[in-house]
Amino acid sequence: MTASTESAGPPRDARSTPAHETLTDYAVDEIRKRIVIGEIAAGSKIGVDFIAKELAVSRIPVREAFRELLAEGLVEMYPHRGAVVAGIARRDVEDGYRLLEVLEVMAVERAAATAPAETASRMRVHLQRLAALREAGQLSPLALLEEHRSFHFAVFDALETGMLERTARSLWHACERFINASARGDRLEQAHHEHLELVRYLEAGDVIGAVAVTQMHVRHGRHAALRGLGFDPS
Q1: What residues are paired with 78 via a beta bridge?
Q2: 82 - beta bridge partners?
Q3: CA distances in angstroms from 184 to 60, 89, 91, 192, listed in the order given
Q4: What CA–CA distance (Å, rounded) separates 223 from 66?
Q5: Which of 61, 112, 219, 221 could disulfide-link 23, Cβ–Cβ 3.0 to 4.6 Å?
Q6: Are 72 and 174 in contact (CB under 8 A)?
Q7: How many beta carbons lie within 10 A of that of residue 113, not counting itself?
Q8: Which of 147, 165, 151 is nearest to 198 (CA)?
Q9: Separation of first and last alpha carbons in the chain
Q10: Percent of the chain that is helix, strand, coil (3-state, to 5)
Q11: Which value, in Å, is the radius of gyration of the alpha carbons in the chain?
Q12: Domain 90-228 classification at class level
């Protein structure tokens, strides 16, 4: 067992997570979060038995979770070795952000056309939570991850269930390590202002403005992610 998996924290009761539809969903989310915030580092082996004990679930949902995380590119599977956290390639960061820009713009266009006020209201809730956590000095990496994800997923929630909604969520999860790496230093404040601008454009029903700030937000995020991951962003 690697040190990174052993330091993942005390066992957690799966029954305390009613937002997850299945134990596999719960396992996927918990393992993903630990990878994204760096509790389990790239190259680390993730033991089935250890994670099952940590999450208070059987081995079956953990194995199923590994298959989903493999599809997201977060883990790699090896015979006789099991699941290992995948490394990050610059090409994947570049491709991920290009695809994310396309899907986020499509999602914002649709949300702005169908439910702008409701979407903006849900997004403001998460901005307010982030502000309160920051003010209280309680903005942990996990809290930032969850509230930032929820802010963007408020746009996806405005979509009808279908190809765009499913693909946008899946891509976000695949890119979340890159997105998390962008949340450093001055980029946090810059991103906060971009989030506010997006909410204001949605409240005003300004589709063109909402699309423009979304494109800018994703492009700034790409630059910051490359820098945060040690790549030349130029």
Answers
A1: 82
A2: 78
A3: 37, 19, 21, 12
A4: 30
A5: 61
A6: yes
A7: 12
A8: 151
A9: 38
A10: 70, 5, 25
A11: 18
A12: mainly alpha
Single out the residue of 210, 26, 233 nearest to residue 117, CA to CA.
210
- Would you state the structure tokens that stand for residue 223, as one six-digit string? 């630059």
Q: Please tell me the distance from the alpha carbon of residue 78 to that of residue 139, in angstroms, as a whole number.
A: 36
* Rounded to 5°, angle at Cα 231 from 152 and 40: 65
What residue ranges do the domains of the chain occupy?
3-85, 90-228
Whole-number Å distance between alpha carbons of 178 and 231: 11
- Structure token pair of residue 108: 């914002």
Distances (CA, A) of 104 to 25, 55, 100, 116, 156: 23, 32, 6, 15, 9
Phi, psi of 7 (to 5 degrees): -95, 15
Which residue pairs from 201-206 have beta carbons closer than 8 angstroms and sit at least 24 positions apart in sequence?
A: 201/112, 202/108, 202/111, 202/112, 202/116, 202/117, 202/119, 202/120, 202/123, 203/116, 203/117, 203/120, 205/112, 205/116, 206/112
Q: In the 8-state DSSP scheme, what is residue 18?
A: T
Give the pLDDT confidence of 14-65 residue by residue, as tens digits. Answer: 333 446 789 999 999 999 999 999 999 999 999 999 999 999 999 999 999 9
Tokens describing residue 26 = 């719960």
Answer for the pair 103, 167: CB distance below 8 angstroms, yes or no. Answer: yes
Which one of 3.20.20.370, 3.40.50.1100, 1.10.10.970, 1.10.10.10 gives the CATH number of domain 3-85? 1.10.10.10
Which letter does DSSP use for residue 33 in this model?
A: H
The Cα–Cα gap between 64 and 27 comes to 9
